[in-house]
Amino acid sequence: MIHRPARAMRTAGSARPARRALLGPALVLALCATGCAASPGTPTGTGAPAGTGTGTVTSTGAAAAAPAVPLKPGEVRVGGEVDKPYTLTLADLRRMPLASVTVTYTSAKGQQTHSFDGVPLHTVLTAAAPRFDPSRKNGALRGVVAATGGGDYRAVFGWAELDPGFAKSQVLVAVSQDGVPLDDNAGPSLVVPQDTKGGRYVSELDRLWVGTVDQVVDGGR
Fold first, then answer.
1. Dist CA 79 CA 146 (whole Å)
2. By C-alpha distance, which of 76, 110, 79 is closest to 202?
3. Which of 35, 56, 82, 91 has the fewest CB atoms within 10 Å of its CB?
4. Beta-bridge partners for 80
5. What's the Cα-to-Cα distance from 104 to each of 29, 59, 126, 167, 171, rounded to whole Å?
6. Across all residues in the chain, what is the average pLDDT?
């Protein structure tokens, strides 16, 4: 495992979870190393998926191949192998239906217990319309998600960990911790109730990439 220094979730009086890079199999790392950099399109126009407020949506077609514009502080780009890449902020998330969870995990400072409010990560990602092959049985189970935070910290999830049809608990894109709103300039943080360690509690979230392992597995890379 690669150890990265702990990074704080920017809330008043909050403790910060351990920042251990849980990047998953080398297979998934190889995919994300190429796809994460190449996939996002250039955010254009306005409007967001239903329920997301006024986030910026990227048009499909030729524009999707253009270089991505720099993100502003607090923005999160949702892209990858999707039909509707878009960018959203904490303000957009706060306008969506929120879920609450109390979690306990271990970090570099020992055991932590906190409450969070946020939007299910599955909701945020499905709004981008991932390109899972419907002709394959449970084609979405080939899906992987890479979450990138401040300082290029990254953690990887399998789609089944996020899909309520498979997962017992829901990963949240948090907007507040212990009743204190997160800093708009820092952006949201991920909350992973099923994890016993805080390494995938990615703070200062700025990029979500969705793809499949097919290119790596079938290509033999």
1. 10
2. 76
3. 91
4. 210
5. 28, 40, 27, 18, 14
6. 79
CA dihedral 213, 164, 153, 97 (to 10 degrees): 140
DSSP letters, 113-125, are EEEEEEEEHHHHH
For the chain, strand residue ranges (E) read 2-3, 20-21, 56-57, 76-80, 86-88, 99-107, 110-120, 143-149, 153-158, 172-177, 180-181, 189-191, 207-212
pLDDT at 25: 42
pLDDT tens-digit series, residues 53-66 = 434 433 344 444 55
- What the block records as the tokens of 149 is 């935070």
Cα separation of 82 and 4, whole Å?
A: 30
Work out the number of other CB atoms within 10 angstroms of the CB of residue 110: 8
Side chain identity, residue 127: A
Task: List, for residues 188-201, the tens digit of each pLDDT value.
Answer: 999 999 999 999 99
